[in-house]
Design a protein that fits this description.
Blueprint lengths: L15 H16 L5 E2 L4 H6 L5 E2 L4 E5 L5 H18 L3 E6 L7 H6 L7 E5 L3 H14 L2 E7 L6 H11 L6 E5 L12 E12 L5 E13 L5 E8 L4 E3 L2 H13 L2
Parallel strand pairs: 3-7, 3-8, 4-5, 4-6, 6-7
Antiparallel strand pairs: 1-2, 8-9, 9-10, 10-11
Helix pairs in contact: 5-6
């Protein structure tokens, strides 16, 4: 003869306080996950960017300040690509729609190894975005640059962002022509103008400089800076004289 088991009481429903605490814990765990970013090596600029650098995965838009600044904007994008390749394995792809593609000596002067670049000449902006999306799904490249004319439509930007969530996020840059542009899903928008290059002690050209303005930054702050590119260290920094002035101003503060 077996003894009847006592009926088990149903689990006590969680109180609103317990449910709220569990939800807060889940949200905390979600937000505490490390966000993949690439610091630019310039502490002042990195402080304006969420998590201290350019987020990897979502697209970033780069725009020349004026049509004459198209080469400066391209050089800025290539410098960021060089920084990414300096810290990551693999290659980068540049897909262009009507833009002149860079050549070996120009790439090397920015610290880029031409042997790690794949160049794609596309028939139009639509082909550029399809190539970027396919590369994101393939999950085999560390950096992607799209050179387009009219800008990145909202739908294309959303598709790129979704595709970037499927694997290891690369640095994704979209460079377009000067102008107001279209509303899109870019995480940041940079407007770049040429500046007189730095010179060495012999009077020769030493390092490219740009005036960059962070016009838009999701979860960050905008700003404007004169920056210099160090192709040996693959980082942005303030020109030396300006850095000394900034340090002196900081020491003079009470």
């Amino acid at each position: 003869m077996t003894m009847a088991q006592a009926p088990t009481s149903p689990p006590k429903p969680a109180s609103p306080t317990d449910r709220l605490a569990r939800l807060r814990a889940e949200l905390s765990a979600e937000t505490s996950r490390a966000v993949a970013v690439m610091p630019l090596g310039h502490p002042v600029i990195d402080a304006h960017l969420p998590s201290g650098g350019l987020s990897l995965g979502p697209p970033h838009e780069i725009v020349p300040a004026e049509p004459i600044d198209a080469i400066a904007a391209l050089a800025f994008a290539l410098a960021l690509c060089a920084r990414r390749l300096a810290e990551a394995q693999g290659e980068a792809m540049i897909a262009s729609s009507g833009h002149p593609l860079p050549y070996g000596h120009g790439l090397a002067s920015l610290g880029l190894n031409p042997g790690r670049l794949l160049l794609l000449e596309a028939g139009g902006d639509g082909e550029v975005f399809r190539a970027l999306e396919a590369a994101l799904h393939a999950n085999c490249l560390s950096a992607l640059i799209g050179l387009v004319g009219e800008g990145m439509p909202l739908k294309a930007g959303r598709r790129l962002q979704l595709a970037a969530e499927t694997g290891e996020p690369p640095l994704l840059l979209v460079l377009r022509q000067a102008g107001p542009g279209l509303p899109n899903g870019a995480a940041t928008r940079w407007r770049v103008a040429a500046a007189p290059a730095g010179s060495d002690r012999f009077g020769g050209l030493h390092a490219p400089r740009w005036r960059v303005r962070l016009e838009r930054c999701r979860n960050g702050r905008g700003g404007s800076w004169l920056v210099e590119w160090d192709s040996a260290a693959n980082r942005l920094h303030l020109p030396e004289r300006l850095a000394d002035d900034a340090a002196a101003a900081g020491r003079a503060r009470p």
